[in-house]
Amino acid sequence: MAKDHRAGSKVRGDKLPAILMASHLLEGDTVFLTDGDWTRDPSAAKIAHDAETAEAMEVEGKAAAAANLVIDPYLVPVELTDAGLPVARHFRDAMRQKGPSVHKDMGKQAEFQPLG
Amino acid sequence: MYRYDEFDERFVRERVAQFRGQVERRVDGSLSEDEFKPLRLKNGLYLQLHAYMLRIAVPYGTLNSRQLRQLARIAETYDKGYGHFTTRQNLQFNWPKLKDVPDILDLLADVEMHCIQTSGNCIRNVTSDQFAGVAKDEVEDPRPTAELLRQWSSLHPEFVWLPRKFKIAVTGAEHDRAAIKVHDIGLKLKRNAAGDVGYEVIVGGGLGRTPMIGKVIREFLPKDELLAYLEAVMRVYNSDGRRDNKYKARVKILVHETGEDEFRALVEAEYAKLDGPTINAPADEVERIAAYFAPPAYDALPETSETLAKARADDAELDRFVAQNGFAHKVPGYIALTVALKEIGAVPGDMSAAQMRAFADIAERYSFDEFRVTHSQNLVLPHVKQDDVPAVYAALKAAGLASANAGLITDIIACPGLDYCALATAKSIPIAQSIAHAFADPARQRAIGPLPIKISGCINACGHHHVGAIGILGLEKGGRENYQITVGGDASEHAALGERLGPGIDAEDVPGAIEAIVDTYLAEKEGEESFIETVRRTGAEPFKAGFATFIESRAATASEAAE
Lengths: 116, 563
Known about the structure:
Helix content of chain A is about 25%, strand content about 25%.
């Protein structure tokens, strides 16, 4: 089967800063890599500002997928808000950080502080 | 409706147990995601943007109150309190957790439901006319055929790894409400000159990235030859369909590349080699299935109801509801009612658990405990006594289900789009909502008349945009969501693919563009012509001109704002 469409990688130009996003195996929920762990809170995602960190995070993501903790980890280019929070540059990834636009009472937007 | 026998019950339970084992092995790490994915898809379990999604089969769109109450229970226990009816007459839950799915499947099996083959490269849920057994223009009820096909195709060992997914639709009526010309196989029950009942067999229709209208490969197939003939079609496809390129793997591409005549010859040659009697269902089995679809015990009633006539005269809202959502029943004194899941501003096809329970009560009390799901993401109460319509309307209204817009411009089909779907390139539900708001005035909707708008959030066309009288396709362009508009699409017996009006536009411009298209229609309309009839007569040109004027005016406004 062909790989699912993944829009995040389509962002043009510099791919940094970036965060690492995946789906949690059991919950299906979107999760973000932190320092050595995973969080459901989009504000708590670890941010890679340089290529070396991004690469190390990707390696960590692949290991977590191989360990059947998460599915489909990938780097997501972000812009930082004035408060330093990472907002995905692509609208598809931004949707995953928030939850469905037609149900503000569901997904991350219902549980966590907005990013910006 | 059909009820499981001992064999069906065991078959579904065994499949649940098998899937439970697969989930256990995934959770304990014995199966990798790459290994598990095709297995979960075969059982309707997707991984979407925010969560897993479970697609439940609603065979040919028929359900009863017990099943709907169970769906309400699942929605509340394992999901977020609602379900979503799809363009293939199925139901999706958007938030289940992997570990809960086997328990959900057990609850479904308790009410004779399952998720078997609601995804994957196999024969999917067979769809049908929502007015099966009701419509006056019906040669024969299509549901026994659909049920026979469901039994034949469920885990058919030869057809579980097809080149690509495969969708079959059946209608028994002259007017096609099942979109049979845009399915992999479309079947139409008909009579030949001798008066015998059989099928017109259409193969190779489909939407998606390469939309095609199906080709008639058999004008008349005797009814008792159905399974063997379809087996021949499936064998040709299974053997010759492309497996090298996912985007060219549907049977429509095979029919197109092989040529209609050559494809027909291949099927007939394969059919000649098959031993029909060993494949076709025995007559007593066909009769056993058909018996489940015997008409309910209708009362002998006058053609029309005085009670309803008086109630309509007294209540303008009820009158509009019946005029718009009522469908003539073949039995005197009865009516079928479309219940549009399309309140202004609602998510097309969404239904809350509370609404499910209220609707289950209504169907149980007033429609012989039966209802239908339509491919337009609406429901139908198929057998309502006209005398009962005022009470049914009041109950529907109390549940927020009495939207009198069936078939009108606000009765919009929309796929889940980027709000949920991992494949989507743009949002579609908010587009439907913004159009519905723009045309919310009921009097204006009625003045515009029937106008099916269909919206897809990507090229895969789950929202059937190619066959919308107005079709909207959401794509990504330069990092933004961008919408292409077509007119002239038609999913009926006049099947046609829509023609693009011009360049893609931004989301906020879509309602304005639809206004411009409607204005063009109202200016061009002759007599009582519906929108699609006008487009058929004039072609797309006047609509392109109206659209171009709209784009120019938007560009002018934008440049003024910039200054």
